[in-house]
Each structure stands twice: as structure tokens, then as C-alpha cells.
Amino acid sequence: MKPYVLGIDIGGTNTVFGIVDARGNVIASSSIKTQRHNDFYLYLDELYAAASKLIEANEATDKIQGIGIGAPNANYYTGRIENAVNLPWPSINLAELVSEKFGIPVAITNDANAAALGEMTYGAARGMKDFIMITLGTGVGSGIVINGQMVYGANGFAGELGHVIVKRNNGRLCGCGRTGCLETYCSATGVARTAREFLEARTEPSILRHLDIDAITSKDVYDAAVQGDKLAKDVFEYTGNILGEAMADMVSFSAPEAFILFGGLSKSGDLLLKPVCEALERNMLPCFKGLAKVILSELKEADAAVLGASALGWEAKRISESI
Amino acid sequence: MKPYVLGIDIGGTNTVFGIVDARGNVIASSSIKTQRHNDFYLYLDELYAAASKLIEANEATDKIQGIGIGAPNANYYTGRIENAVNLPWPSINLAELVSEKFGIPVAITNDANAAALGEMTYGAARGMKDFIMITLGTGVGSGIVINGQMVYGANGFAGELGHVIVKRNNGRLCGCGRTGCLETYCSATGVARTAREFLEARTEPSILRHLDIDAITSKDVYDAAVQGDKLAKDVFEYTGNILGEAMADMVSFSAPEAFILFGGLSKSGDLLLKPVCEALERNMLPCFKGLAKVILSELKEADAAVLGASALGWEAKRISESI
Is the Cβ–Cβ distance between B139 and B183 less than 8 Å? Predict the structure, then answer.
């Protein structure tokens, strides 16, 4: 067993990568721009050069056990990125091409699954066999672990809990083309959307009325709520209630011992957590009462993406050994 | 490896048991009344006597690999039945007591999980690693298989998909004490309830108006629909649509390759299956389109409960070997 893995997080803007040890310490990290090259091979050349430099500078040559990559629409089974709208190369066999270039086993998965793996390997879910990671960012992502294993499903795309339907009628239009998805209510953009709706539907005064309504962000709503703004607090109450209700249904599915929340919105403290926990307890089947804890990610946000991806690197080695 | 397992299905009225071989043939079966004894030990004596007689008559003494039991509220992890309202002994350590009596390893689970195991071991799900069994009977039960393993969750009660919420507002009151559960719409009783609602809310003629409205059953609705009754057909359309919508959300969770439907209502043919499949395809996330097939159980209904329970018997042996 070599001492390090390389974690690579491919985002729409930046590709961040880092050398990580078995305890989850990021030894060193760096990044390149994802969008500089429309040709994937030029991107790969640049990534290889930058990562090799980092590896050499940290005396980690021949000490990398595997490479784990988190990327949008990445498929664990096929190693492919498929129809990723935010990347210049929407469909490629990422795992194979990176593995050939580096001469190291590669495993890939999507960002939310990587986050769950990171939490299980180095974070709040160490030792847990059944938990659900929910990432509350621009969208809502999820990574599900059952019996100690990531759930990839029959086609590799399982765990899209941001797209369970929470409003069957007159639900909000989602980026996926459907309406009423959890993501349209409980993401950062969902919170801003709720604030705009409340401001239009209600007449009471609110700090938020001093802002350009179309430019309101979840951060604005948070700041107003912290200052005691009733309408802003109601937005969090509404958001948390929907999320807690949806989580109660997830409990009926897999009876997890915990939900781990991650991402910008999860840092809203009790403003969000209190209504989430209340709605969860209120809506769970009696046989699950008290079962599923709601806890926050233990990974530093700056490192989380690389750590999550790196966790898969240990597995990449196991996969290649098993072949 | 011994050639047989004993499957025991404990229902509220009858306890059915059978000797089953590795190919899913029920060699012989018999039953006793579940409710005759309020004292569990007297029930167990009777069960042991009847099962021993069956085993001896079929020259299966010392040829039973394990005993699998399907029972309401049975917990795979603890071996206990917990708070089973339909049994005279609501909370007991069933697995331990039966195992001591028979001198054979015992594993237990609830009826719907047993059905899923039966389907995976002998039926329509042979070779499948990711599927969801949905039992459409008086209630709606489910058994979930992911990565080739039953999903029991952190407390042993996972897979209660009959109790995901399909109507957040003004949903029907469910036996679980909550409102809007899938079970209140898509069970046999749910179908009858929908028929009554439609008959009251609508004015058109219907064969069902000739019946005592309070006594209408799902079978009455089926018979009317088969005769072309518009209102009765609409009831199935409504039921199938709700079920298909709920199933689309389940796909977002675990991306199964198939749903296997079982139970009385599943035999309604295209009356139910067509709207289920249409709603499922219409509501699935784009990345899952075409993934999850909807198929019917391949187990004979008369044998299914015993077969399902028996499938766990093979596993009981594995558990005891692993200790």
C-alpha cells in the first residue's frame, strides 16, 4: 500500500487537485482552469504537467496509490463523463484517459458521491454503514451509503435526491426540465427564490426590501435573518421544513443512522437546522423516530472536494487489484 | 450444504410453512392457526410438532440447512418481532426461540423483504443486483435490494416505501398515524377508497353505483373496469399514476434496474400497469429514462410467502457459519 492518493475535483471553472494521505491530510494542492482547452487532450497535458510538478515537489513520485476524480455527471461504472453541460468535453472516458496518462489506477464519481466518500473515509461518517450525504449548494446533491457501500445503482447515477419531487402541483421549474424538485426549494438559489416569492406575496416590512429583488442571494437572506428579520427567518423555516419532510421519506427508504449536510446553506446554523430536525422528527414513521441524526460535515470546505475525490483513489487501487 | 430450507410465513391468521429446495420447489407445505395460543411457547410447541411431522414425512430430517421466517415487524438484525399489532405476542425474540426449539439456524425479516428475497433467489429478480419489490395488497410493502443485498438500514426497518408521502396536503389518514402515505392510495383498500371518493364527487353513471358504496372492494372496481366502466377505469388510472410518480422518486434514490410488483392489485393487468409505466417514464429524471423496468412477480401466489421466507433460510446458515 502506497502512502498517498491524488484527489482531483473537476468543476466548471477550476480543476483542483491534491496529494492526500490515509488520515485525510492534504499534503499539497494546486489547481488549473478547467475551461482553457476545448480539446480534452490539451487539458489532460496541462493537468498532468501541473500534478506531476506537485508530486515531484512533495517527493511523492511512485507513492501514489490511486487517483480519485470527482466530476459532474461522472459514472463510476463506465469511468465516463456523460452529458456534462458545464464542461467543455461533455462526454469522454475520463478514467481511462487519465489512468493511461498517469500510469496509475483511476476511479471517478460525481461530486456529491465523492463528498460522501470523503466523509466516510476521513470525516463525520467514519464508522457509519448507513448514511445520506446532502450537499446544499447552488443545487442539491446527494451521496448515499448503505451497508458501508456507495449506492451507484444499476446505471451508476443513483443518489439524485435533489430531484425527488416535493411539490406535485405548481412546483417550481427545475434545471432538469421537471417541476417541483427538492433542489428548486432547498438549494441556495431555492432560498433566494423563496425570498423573492415571499417579498412579492407579503406586505410586511423586511430588510430585504432595501435590496434589488432580482439580485437577492441566499447570503442576503441569511444576513437579514441573523438580524432578526421575520420574513427572512420565515424563508429558512419554509426551506428547512421542506427539506425535513423530504428527508423523512428518505428514512422510509434506507433507514440511515445520519444525514450529513454539506455546502454553503448547511452553514446557516439553527436557522436551517432547527426546522429541518423538527420536520424530520414530525414526519418520520414511528418505527424510525429518533433514528436519523442530522449532522454537519466535518471536512474543511476548502479541502472537501479534493478529499472526497481522493477517498475514491484508495478504492481505485482495490478495483485494479481485483481484476 | 444441506438440500433444503424451511420457510415459515407468520400471518395474522395462518402460519404457513414449507420445505423448499435450492431451485425453489416447495417439496411440501402445511399450516397452523397463528392465533390459537396467546402464549408464544404453546404456539411454538404446535409449530414444532407440525413442522417436524412434515419434515419426517418427507424424509428431510437432518437435511434442513436453515429456517427463514417472514413475519410482520420482524427485525433481521435483532431476530425480534417488535410491536406487531396483528400477532398475539407483539414483542418476542422469535429467531432465538425458534432456533433453540428446532436446533437449526434461523433468520427472520418482514413479509415484503421476504418477498424480495424470494424473487431474487427463485423468481423474476434472479441475477439482479438492484431492484425494488413492491407488494400491493391490503397495504403497500416494499423490499429493496442494492448491490445484491437486502437493505435493512441502521435499525433493521428500512424499505417502508408504502409510507412515503405522496400527498403533502389533505392526504388520506394512514394506519401509521400520518397522512398522505402511498399505501392509502395504492393498496387494495386505497383503490376502494378512491372509488368511493369518485362516486361521491362525480355524477356520471357507473356499474359501481349498484353496489353498497361502503362495501366496495378493489375487486369490484377491477370487475367494473374490465367491463369498460369509465369511472372504475379512472380509479385505476389515478392509482397507477400516483404509484408511477412515487416510483420515479425511488429511481432517483437507488436507480434500480427493475420494480417487481406483487400482490392482489398487481394482477390488474394493463389497467394498472399502463398508467404506472407511463407515469414512471414521464416523471423520471432524464438520466434514468428507460432504466427501470416494471415486471410482475414470477412466484406463484400460493407459494410466494413460504418461498420468500425460505430464501432467508439459506442466509441463516451463512450467518451462523460466519460467527
Answer: yes
From B65's Cα to the closest Cα of chain A, the distance in A is: 25
Rounded-to-integer distance, Cα B124 and Cα B298, Å: 5
Angle (CA) B109 B112 B116, round 5°: 95
What DSSP string runs through A286-306? GGGTTT-EEEE--S-HHHHHH
Q: Which of residues 80-119 of B touch A (CB under 8 A)?
A: 82-83
The CA distance from B26 to A319, in Å, is 40
The nearest CA of chain B is from the CA of A174 a distance in Å of 11
Most B CBs within 10 Å: which of A78, A130, A164, as the mutation test of the B interface? A164
List C-alpha distances in Å: A274 to A54, A181, A255, A287. Answer: 43, 22, 21, 22
- Mean pLDDT, consecutive 10-residue stretches, chain B (323 aa), reads 95 95 95 94 97 97 96 93 88 95 95 94 95 95 97 96 96 95 97 98 97 96 98 98 98 98 94 98 94 94 90 75 45
**Residue B294 pairs with which residues in a beta bridge?**
B259
Q: How close is the nearest chain A Cα to the Cα of B298, in Å?
A: 21
Q: What's the pTM?
A: 0.94
* Cα–Cα distance for residue pair B19/B27, rounded to 1 Å: 5
Strand pairing category for B14-21 and B4-10 = antiparallel
CA dihedral angle for residue B183, residue B91, residue B32, residue B108, rounded to 10 degrees: 70
Extract the C-alpha cell encoding A116: 460522501
Searching chain B, which residue's CA lies closest to the CA of residue A166? B168
Distance CA A1, CA A241 (A): 46
Residue B168 contacts A where some CB pair is shorter than 8 Å: yes
Give B 269-288 residues with CB within 8 A of chain A: 283, 285-288
C-alpha cell recorded at residue B159: 424499505
Inter-chain Cβ pairs, chain A and chain B, closer than 8 A: 138
Cβ pair A253:B256 closer than 8 A: no
